[in-house]
Amino acid sequence: MNRALLAGVAAAGLAWAAAAAEPAANPYEKNVAPQARTELDRLVLAKLEKLGIQPANICSDAVFVRRAYLDIIGTLPTGKEAWAFIQSQEPNKRTALVDVLMQRPEFTDYWTMKWDETLRVKAEFPINLWPNAVQAYHRWIFTAVRDNMPFDKFARELLTANGSNFRVGPVNFYRAVQNKEPAGLAQAAALTFLGERADKWPKDKLAAFSGFFAQIGFKSTLEWKEEFVYFNTALATNGLTQKARFPDGTPAKIGPEDDPRVVFADWLISAKNPVFARVAVNRVWTWLLGRGIVHEPDDFRADNPPSNPELLDYLAKELVKAKWDLRQIYRLILTSEVYQLSSLPKTRGAAAEANFAYYPLRKLEAEVLIDALNQITGTTEKYVSAIPEPFTYIPEDQRAIQLGDGSISSSFLEMFGRPSRDTGLWAERNSKTSADQVLHMLNSSHVQRKLEQSPKLMGLMRNATSSREIIGGLYLMILSRPPTEQEWKTIADYAQLGVAPAVAENSKGGKSGKSGKSGKFQKGGSSSKTSSGSSKGREAALDIAWSLFNSQEFLYRH
Amino acid sequence: MKTILTANDMTRRDALRWTALGAGGLMVGGLPARAAVRPATAKSVIQIWMWGGPAHLDTFDPKPDAGNDYTGPLNKPIETNVPGIRIGELLPILAKRADKYSILRTMTHGNNGHETASYMVQTGHKPGDGTVYPGVGAVVSLFKGYAGGYKGLLPPYIVMTKLQGRFAEAGFLGSRAKPFATGGDPAQSRFVVEGVVAEGISDQRQQARRGLMHNLNTLGQTMADDPAVVDAVKAEQAAYDLILGDAGKVFDLSQEKESLREAYGKTRFGQSCLMARRLVERGVPYITINYEGWDTHKGHFNDMRRKLPELDKGMGTLLKDLADRGLLESTIVWWGGEFGRTPKVQWEPPWNGGRNHFGKVFSHVVAGGGFKGGRVVGETNATGEEVKTRPIYVTDLITSMYDLLGIDSNAKLPHPQGLDVAVMRPDTGVAGSNKLTEIM
């Protein structure tokens, strides 16, 4: 972070609450209630009003910038980015930020990761796609997300592709299952595109649906682990195809030359089938807001109705209207007032939660968390595959959200609940806090080493001219906001304990920039003992960073 | 919280568990209240996982008469303290303690791939029916952990020192049923257990910065009633009980007599065995020692000369130490890997005296917890390549252990999608249903 920025944060610090446009009791919300500015807002707020539930206030700019980065690109804003947004006087800066973030390359990385989970992209047991096939599959998904492939086309290609698993990425959809019998393939298609758990269907319904997947051939080649997936007309004799019925019970007309997968895919994406779009928009909604309109997003069934059917219908129709451009649905949600609600509920309870009366606290995904720790500290992480293939070598600066293969991992990712990609279920990702995660954040050599050997934090301490700048910088880098008055005071009190005198010595002083006329850092100067000159000061700064790493504000989306 | 105990745990915003704290929340829910098949004799399991697959001919099933192409240089097996039982010549300490354990010489599943074989041996299930089963450790710590009356602060399923990676121990139970991996090296002067023991941070600084953390936790204070925050606060309390409280002292091996530490061997494996005994004393139901280095394709016999004495000291001393303390009666020690190794030596390059994977027949060893010692179950042919009598399938072994632990193999496991899944299913299990009644 540069000097001018640091000085600015330090100066702003004390007056933080007063300087905010609408003074609030905490740094997380504005004293402003949401307005029905869009149709989406109207549908959510009307439902809340009907239920007598008061929605939360609109979140503060500091919360919004952090939330938008984490939700849209799975990446923490840098201190500089957070500060620029907080300081900006642009009237439409929130919408502008959404638009900017959706163009960032990390948008593709992050949303490819979500689809990789849903589509079970994993080289090893029990999916066993094999590394070359994983590369092709992941790459195809990545390209589709990057180029914003219309969602109907996306689904159709996954369902109907033919060719080599090493060369035609989407054919791996049918290979990424443990049970390759027609019923197993049918279950995968139902889960992914109908959001239904077909293993719970009546037996005859599943049998009839399996007919669409009864002529998928798998054929190995002379190349090790290469496999062709294709329409195998010879399998027509099994009789299943002739009995194929759509999930709504309508019998299918499949001629002897017709690939039954194509017949199903065309039915799935046709305008007459509203389910497909509903499942798609509900997934996006769940990803962005932590809870589905139908919840869980892969458990559509008659006795699990949407909490707000009008909202679900509205979004689904918007997707069709947008010619299956999912990004327009992202934008619709992200620029709504509903998305901007703070995480401090005015009403608690199951109904408030199910009807989106506030933005729920959610643990950062394992991948996002480790990337954030690496970004803040300027350190890297090692990822390995259990199978030492040359093409699974991972460069040192690899970000976890870019890992294409569920079999390439680290103990941190496993401990913090990265999904195993065995089933494609949304709930496979473990979003709960466990004691071993807490132990790891509090006390592991892994995290402690990141702090102590951090080039970024050392740089901050070297370049800052006062402890105020260091503390302000840490807050922006880690929590994406300056400290509150109370927090400045806490840090000053910590110094009084005698554990770390230097860091807070002048945190009660007003302006920064005492270090010299030129504003240049003077090593060992009277106001800069916090820098490399003082190991106590360094220790205290690390203790502050460590404390912030262990705060819920850092560990959770909020 | 290594255990998931209810079917809907994955989606419930419920309290976490690992410790006795807040034990009300997700404890028993999905566990059946069925009576156990028989009174449990075993409380804990120490699993010595011979990662990579150890050669049965060089350990517990020597074939000195099969000729040099089978024995290689290790052709002089030794008598044990049980008449009629001979084992490999590099295991003299274990030879003196053969009365404490039984050798299962006819384990078989026929698979020669590490992944699939590991999955079968550690779960007792065949892959491929769409369900990924939890390993024995996850099952035992589910039934014998907090739901089974365990109240310790230590996690109920501990792995030394690292996870296998290839295979998800928890299966469909999910990441919360995963073991706690210690990291670190118990043979070092300080066993730095990841998260529990931090180097270079004094207790005073720990206390001070904990206070600072609480005071700077502005969002947590603002939202103290949020279920996620309540969970996090509980987990933090549990964590500090380990970091600063007495529970974490279990990892301080300097509390043991130096002579005993020497007897175990000052190696990662030897000290892991000692550590396992200390964990058993504190009631931890399942401990796995992932013992690396047994996938000996090349230079096999040099590896055996280096590694078998280490195994001998660690495991031999563990059996005696457990017996001396009266713990062996209630502790199953289970030794074995995913398969054995080809009885016929591969002398040709590039192996130059190596042994390959061999799932057709291999040895496992069990001791304690209700298993009799001093027996051999099953007989292999003259070259150790075929089962001659009494094939032992993985299910036979695992259901026998569950019996001794008082775990009903027909009980339902909590499945995240509510599927009806039993602990062991004869139809998907790795064939066989002949429990090891010979030694129970």
| Number of self-contained structural domains of chain B | 2
**What is the CATH C-level name of the largest domain in chain B?**
Alpha Beta
As a percent range, the share of strand residues of chain A is under 5%
Helical amount of chain B: 25-40%
Q: What is the terminal-to-terminal distance of chain A? A: 25 Å
Task: Predict the CATH topology of the largest domain in chain B.
Answer: Alkaline Phosphatase, subunit A
Helical content of chain A stands at 40-55%
Number of helices of chain A: 25
Please report which band the strand proportion of chain B falls in: under 5%, 5-15%, 15-25%, 25-35%, 35-45% or over 45%: 5-15%
The beta-strand count of chain A equals 7
Order of helices and strands of chain B: EHEEHEHHEEHHHHHEHEEEEEEEHEE
SS-derived structural category of chain A: mainly alpha
Q: Tell me the strand order in the biggest sheet of chain A.
A: 1-3-2
Overall average residue pLDDT of chain B: 88
Kindly report the greatest chain-chain contact and the residue count on each side.
A-B, 71 and 72 residues
How would you characterize the largest beta sheet of chain A?
A: 3 strands, antiparallel
